[in-house]
Amino acid sequence: MIESLKPTAVTAEKLRIGNIELPVPVELAPMAGITNTAYRRLCREYGEGLFVSEMITSRALVERTPNTLRLIQFHESEKPRSIQLYGVDPKTIAQAVTMIVDDDLADHIDLNFGCPVPKVTRKGGGSALPWKQDLFAAIVKQAVKAAGNLPLTIKMRKGIDQDHLTFLDAGKMAADAGVAAIALHGRTMAEHYSGKADWDAIAELKQAVNGVPVLGNGDIWSAADAIRMVEHTGCDGVVVGRGCLGRPWLFGDLTAAFKARAGEISWEEANAAAAAPPLGEVMDAVRRHTELLVDFFGGDEAHAHRDIRKHMAWYFKGYSVGGDVRRALAGVLDFAHMDEIFAQMDRSLPYPEQGAEGPRGRAGRAKRPHLPDGWLESRSSDNIDFTELADAERDDSGG
Question: What is the mean pLDDT of residues 212-233?
């Protein structure tokens, strides 16, 4: 119950990220192939917060590749507009930030230093990059300068592994450079998404960058988890990634919980607002999500249905719908086919409680860090071949 987490003191402050004031301190984490306009719009229909785009590579943005220009499109209902950038070259990232500012493409920019994907980190990108302190500092400083009055934030991990932690040094450098906020996923690159997120590291970072908002990320599967994280770490807000897969209504739960914590509504009202959707409401959400995907893909219904397939297992986690139905949903062809499958399902089937909650998405296992040869021998970027580093700029999202 959220009510059992009621703090001893009411906290009424809003989260400010530069000139942006959020009604609740909640951010949707960028996830490749997930947090497109369609899913962001769906989540906004349930709750409030900052809803960030898929990760956009700075090189592709500067080169104005067609797919990238499509990915940075925002629906008129999306305010504030938030783009996450990824890159390895300070000059290219600064050019991308300048383009966003000059062309009024977004209201907020986030820089990704959290990607744990081997094909990125073996080129020195993602969560490997903060190890090179001068390169990290140069990227953040030039990006903040190029952003001007546009708030710029960063998202990172604890480090490469437990023997090569970077989050405190990187956090202090980012704070000195003038970032508007720092988000920390409480895992290392090596941990990937395995094990348990280290919330103590989030608390440590909060103490180290006094005055700069810190957002915590990792193992937030419910509104109760979010409140626990804030209470445990003292962080200013939370970033939700895998916890919302197939559960866009989680943002409604989060909104209610944080409004109760701020004294805007009672904890009884927050508990009453907590989502417990029967099967019919889940089906309605899937259909709405698909309709928004059709819009996102320019009216291409076949593309939208291919895309919604990967969400089906998440949406129906815990519900007793049967193996044949699940297989059919995983191969849905069009709206007529979807409606035919839904007609076989019992809309009144109640919410399965714990069966539908908890971890979702691939956790996997800890992985050996994949890094460029000799990467750990020095904290300096001297002698880096940026031609090779540029290969790290791929359309993969980090945690």
Answer: 97
The string of pLDDT tens digits covering residues 374-399 is: 899 999 988 777 666 666 565 544 44
Q: What is the mean pLDDT of residues 168-179?
A: 98
Helices and strands (H, E) in the chain, number of each type:
17, 12
The domain segmentation of the chain, as residue ranges, is 13-274, 279-356
**Residue range 333-362, pLDDT digits in tens:** 999 999 999 999 999 999 999 999 988 887
Given 43, 115, 235, 244, the catalytic residue: 115
Percent of the chain with pLDDT over 90: 82
Left (φ > 0), alpha (ψ -120 to 50) or beta: where does 104 sit? left
Give me the DSSP letters along 291-359: HHHHHHTTT-HHHHHHHHGGGHHHHTTT----HHHHHHHTT--SHHHHHHHHTTS-TTPPP-GGGG-S-
CA angle in degrees (0–180, nearest 5) for 160-166-171 = 140
Establish whether 115 is a catalytic residue: yes
Domain 13-274 adopts which CATH fold?
TIM Barrel (3.20.20)
Look up residue 395 and give its amino acid.
Answer: D
